[in-house]
Amino acid sequence: KLILNEYDSSNLKSSEYNVETKELMVEFKKGGQYSYESVPLSIFTKMRMAESQGSFFSKNISKNYKYKKLS
Q1: Is 25 exposed, middle or buried (0-12, 13-18, 19+ CB in 10 A)?
Q2: Alpha helix (H) ranges present in 6-71?
Q3: Contact, 11 vs 29, CB < 8 A?
Q4: Which residues are within 8 A (CB) of 23 and not within 5 positions of it... i.e. 6 or more apart?
Q5: pLDDT tier for residue 54 given thresholds of 50, 70 and 90
Q6: 20 has pLDDT over 90
Q7: Over the stretch 32-50, which tens digit does the pLDDT of each residue have?
Q8: Fewest C-beta in 10 Å: which of 17, 27, 39, 47?
Q9: Which positions ≥6 away from 25 have C-beta within 8 Å?
Q10: Assign residue 68 a region: left if phi > 0, alpha if psi is -120 to 50, beta otherwise?
């Protein structure tokens, strides 16, 4: 199951979260797509609910999970 989101953020454009594999794919406004491994659903949900998704992502996801650049 995939959860797709678009963001009204200065940094994040959209995300795609795979509930089964816990893979989070993020597309940035300035370009570039990254895939983050083993992100718990609870963390992804908190990001979606955060007042500033970009800020939450920077503090809680970008430096804490293994990632690879997709494009």
Answers
A1: middle
A2: 41-49, 53-60
A3: yes
A4: 17, 35, 36, 37, 39
A5: very high
A6: yes
A7: 999 999 999 999 999 999 9
A8: 27
A9: 15, 16, 17, 33, 34, 35, 36, 70
A10: beta
Q: Please determine, for residue 71, whether its predicted confidence score (pLDDT) is greater than 90.
A: no
Q: Which long-range contacts (CB under 8 A, 24 or more apart) does 55-62 make?
A: 57/11, 57/12, 57/26, 58/11, 61/24, 61/36, 62/36
How much of the chain, in percent, has pLDDT values that exceed 70? 100
CA distances from 32 to 15, 24, 52 (A): 12, 14, 20
